[in-house]
Hints:
Blueprint: E1 5-8, E2 11-13, H1 26-29, E3 32-40, E4 43-44, H2 47-60, H3 69-80, E5 87-95, E6 112-119, E7 129-135, H4 150-162, E8 166-171, E9 174-178, E10 182-187, E11 190-193, H5 204-216, E12 220-222, H6 227-232, E13 235-239, E14 246-251, E15 254-255, H7 261-279
Helix pairs in contact: 5-7
Amino acid sequence: MFKELAYYDGQLGTPDEVMIPFNDRSHFFGDGVYEATPAGNHVPYLVEDHLDRFYTSANIMDIKIPMEKDELKKLLQDLTKQVEGHTHFVYWQVTRGLAARDHVYSKDMVGKLWVYIRPSKIGDMENPIKVQTHEDLRFEYGNVKTLNLLPAVLYSQEAHHKGVTETILHRKGIVTECAHSNVSILKDGAVISHPNDQYILRGIAKTHMIQACYRLGIPVYEREYTLEELMDADEIFVTSSSNFLTFADTVDGKPAGNKDPKTRNRIKDELIREYFEYTGCTKLNG
Length: 286
């Protein structure tokens, strides 16, 4: 069993043991796409959804994944079983391939698969978080989960310096998503969430939060909403694969949200139930 596992193009070992060729295009261009999900009971959670998005991102970027979807699913499941612990962070990416530095690439280049798995925990869903807002200055491939994360790194570092957890992004006052999460609001018993367009990543956790709302009879409106609506919301939901559903009570230093804990907890409990059913776990992080 590994404490942490790394995999690159068929090589398997610890992160210190596995070596990456210098000419992998990720080193020069960040030329690749990625996915990540938690695993419970050594079962990667919602792996089919994540693989669908992974292959979609690669197709948009014209990157050839070196194996079929079912084969990659089995590889991720098998590798997760080789890592110590009960709850894990499962990360994988594909880079375009190996070549001397050149912006133009060969059309027959086959991608290189990377996997990284370590023990982890599902995030805290009981306590509120503080967030800040920032103009969304990223390029318009927000719907692709690329390795080009420098803007997200900068937004996250700024949030860390300010003592807040996340950065909610907006384009001219229209809320898009967070630096590394999706954000939705609850107002008068209905969830409002930015539609899946080129400005946001189609979040798996957001999608399953919306599906949970449908099962619970909670209305959902996928439409644009403003910073003013964010500040006036009854709840501010921040969703990601590692946290499922967290909620904010402070935005830019001002109180916000945290006014409808009953509805929030109904959604949270339904998401946890779904996780238990999928993984066979009976408790989080245990």
